[in-house]
Predict the structure.
Amino acid sequence: MPLSQRFTLTQYLIEQRRRFPDASGDFNALILDVALACKAIARTVAFGELGGVTGNHEVEGGASINVQGETQKKLDVLSNQVFIQMNEWGGHLAGMASEEMGAPYQIPTSYPRGKYLLVFDPLDGSSNIDVNVSVGSIFSVLRAPADAIASGRDLTEADFLQPGATQVAAGYALYGPTTMFILSVGNGVAGFTLDPNLGEFRLTHPDIRVPEQTQEFAINASNSRFWEPPVKRYVDECLAGRTGPRGKDFNMRWIASMVAEAHRILMRGGVFLYPRDTKDPSKPGRLRLLYEANPIGFIMEQAGGRASTGRQPVLGVRPSELHQRIGLVFGSREEVERIERYHHEPA
Ligand code: AHG
Ligand code: MN
Ligand code: MN
Ligand code: MN
């Protein structure tokens, strides 16, 4: 398709809105603010060492630590600030929550408050920043509780504890060789590529579908001694290759940026596992439910793939904490269903 005929993200959103004649336009404005934040982060990431943005975020006494005990990179903190600045003023949001903030962020009273909640991982894969490997931002849009919208009250953690199935929209930006913006407003999944000349996201992948079958899996194998038996069985069968029970050879990938793995899987199929394991009994999984598992799960399901804890669909889990961790398996439907089956079969 000639470049001039490619839709922009704005045009795509206007087209989608035509399905809802009563829509106020708030939602579209919100997504455009999120996309603007992602463009700003993409620029900052692209400057790397030249921009002085690599390395840890230093505070008095050493590197800062976020609420989940991780060392914060400068870009974790910066990206979080960009998300806040681009989204707090527009009047579309009742509040925000992020990986990098212990408690919900209250929209300052100097701005109007709106009806949506924005939950985000401002920079996913941030350990890869200093080695120039792809990173991204992940976001989830929820509706604020009716009484919060009506009263404009401050939000509590409980307001955010909604199952992933209630998401209004979800998406991510990927800062790779090109910057991409992947979005689902609950009507399939669309992919946009940043046109650096126009500074606009343009529709390049109109209806992304995850291939149902695959011969590629992604798991951090250094954790294998902590895996539960169903996961060990699944991986062993993949490794056994064409002479094993699967009757085919598998390939393996591990980028350590979940957002980049999710993108690869959307483009060419595959399965990703960061399962619950026995490494640290206080952490039932590595990835976070509200701003990693739920938005990526929503995208996968909207693209015809599947996302699971291993035991049940991720989108059905009722969250109990803002920063809750969970086992996560997603990707090609048949593989995820197989892994779920192994979890339900007696050992
Ligand atoms: P974040 O950078 O937002 O904290 O997330 C990192 C996550 C995820 O992107 C990746 O899949 C995983 O951590 C990598 O974990 P390992 O270091 O255990 O491989
Ligand atoms: Mn982190
Ligand atoms: Mn992350
Ligand atoms: Mn992060």
Summary: Helices lie at 9-17, 26-47, 74-87, 146-151, 229-240, 258-268, 289-302, 333-344. The chain has a mean pLDDT of 96. Residues 34 and 275 are 29 Å apart (CA to CA).
